[in-house]
Amino acid sequence: MIVAGFGFRAGATPESLADALDEAGGSAIAAALATAADKARAAPFTRFAQARGLPIHPIDPAALAGQETATHSAPSQAARGTGSLSEAAALAAAGPGARLIAPRAVSRDGMATCALAEGMER
C-alpha cells in the first residue's frame, strides 16, 4: 500500500494539497492519506480526501516523532518532533517496515508538503 503523508499550513486549500501530491508523484498511486491527528479533520484536508475517495489516517504525536525522515525542517522539528511531518506521517501510516519512496515535495504555493511511503497491505 502506498500512503501519501501531508503537512500543511492553516491557509492551505484542497488545491494546495493536490499540487503537493502531484509534485511528489502520488496522484495515480496513493491508496490512503495521512497527517498529524490534529490536522486530520481540517476542512480543506477532508474535502481533498473525499474528492479523491481516499481514507485518512490520523497519526498521533508519538508515532510521528518515532519516524526517521530523509529531509529535515527546523520548524517541523520544533513543532512536531520530526524532521518532516509529511514523511513521518506517510511512514507511520504505511506501517512497520515501510520505506519512503518519495521524499517531501512542496506545493507551488508553499502551503502544503507531501511524501510517499510504501508498506505492506493493511
Note down, in words, how this protein is organized.
The chain has helices spanning 14-24, 43-52, 61-65, 74-80, 85-94, and strands at residues 2-8, 32-36, 56-59, 99-106, 112-118. The protein has 122 residues and is α/β, with parallel strands linked by helices. The protein has one domain (2-118): CobE/GbiG C-terminal domain (Nucleotidyltransferase, domain 5, 2-Layer Sandwich). It has a 5-stranded mixed β-sheet. Helix 1 packs across helix 2. The protein is globular and about 30 Å long.
Give the SSE map.
Layout: E1 2-8, H1 14-24, E2 32-36, H2 43-52, E3 56-59, H3 61-65, H4 74-80, H5 85-94, E4 99-106, E5 112-118
Parallel strand pairs: 1-2, 2-3
Antiparallel strand pairs: 1-5, 4-5
Helix pairs in contact: 1-2
Number of individual domains: 1
Shape: globular
**Unreliable spans:** none
Mean pLDDT: 95
What's the level 1 CATH class? Answer: Alpha Beta
Q: What's the CATH topology label? A: Nucleotidyltransferase, domain 5
With strands numbered from the N-terminus, the spatial order across the biggest sheet is 3-2-1-5-4
Discrete helix count: 5
